[in-house]
Design goal:
Blueprint lengths: L20 H17 L25 E6 L5 E3 L2 E3 L1 H14 L4 E6 L5 H14 L3 E4 L10
Parallel strand pairs: 1-4, 4-5
Antiparallel strand pairs: 1-2, 2-3
Amino acid sequence: MTFGRLERTPGPQPMSEINMTPLVDVMLVLVVIFIITAPLLVSAVKVDLPKTPGTTSLQAPKFVALVIDKAGQVYVDDRPLDASALAQALQATAQRNPDTEVQLRADVTVPYGRVVEIMGLAHAAGLSRIGFVAEPPPAAAR
């Protein structure tokens, strides 16, 4: 070593691999967004469901969704139907699979008689498994 001369250390080498951490972070955020928004896309008909503490999520593999809105209009899988078309659709569903569950979503303001009428049509068609869909009450009301 000579006087006045300093040894040089080699500098950092350029990184040749792709950093996967930001990519994984973005993908996890997208998965969370899809998990949160997927249940909101189940029904396109806007219904104000009654709130009761005994409700649970129904995850039936075979079901038909019946919705009764405020005006009393009946929707089967988001398609509006009149009484005769509803009876035909329910009979066709019962012929395909008599164990099909009917998930009934009725607005709070729908008269009880209208709900019973739709239940009677489903039962007459041969569908005996009827589930009522409701929302749990807000946390503050418990």
